[in-house]
Design goal:
alpha/beta; 3-stranded parallel sheet; 5 helices; globular
Length: about 120
């Protein structure tokens, strides 16, 4: 889409040669996060980025963090102060009502909990 900064992904190769199912994405996250104790002691922090709706292939879940409602489970599974969010305000604003809370409510919620590790404002 010329001039919008949005790229079409219809011809893009899929990283695993196919679309992953939502359950597979959660299984991969759970496997990855179980390795976490090895890194926590080194002070490594992970900021989960919300799903960028511009890059979605239809309505296929690509990401574990697609809206506000979906934010709880990743933190519960990890159970670590070193897991937070990379709050992309542009992505959140583009999601609109589909995100479940507006960007200011989201900033307040995660900010009060010390869970915003990084924030970006580009759209």
């Amino acid at each position: 889409m010329p001039g919008t900064g949005i790229r079409r992904f219809s011809g893009a190769r899929l990283p695993h040669g196919r679309v992953l199912l939502g359950e597979e994405i959660w299984d991969n996250y759970t496997y990855f996060i179980r390795l976490w104790p090895r890194w926590r002691g080194a002070g490594v922090r992970i900021g989960i980025h919300p799903d960028d709706r511009r890059c979605r292939a239809g309505r296929v879940p690509r990401c574990i963090f697609g809206n506000f409602e979906g934010t709880g489970e990743p933190f519960e599974i990890a159970d670590s102060p070193n897991i937070g969010i990379c709050l992309c305000c542009g992505t959140w604003l583009e999601g609109g009502k589909l995100m479940g809370k507006d960007v200011l409510e989201t900033i307040h919620y995660f900010g009060c909990r010390g869970k915003i590790f990084k924030s970006t404002f580009a759209m």
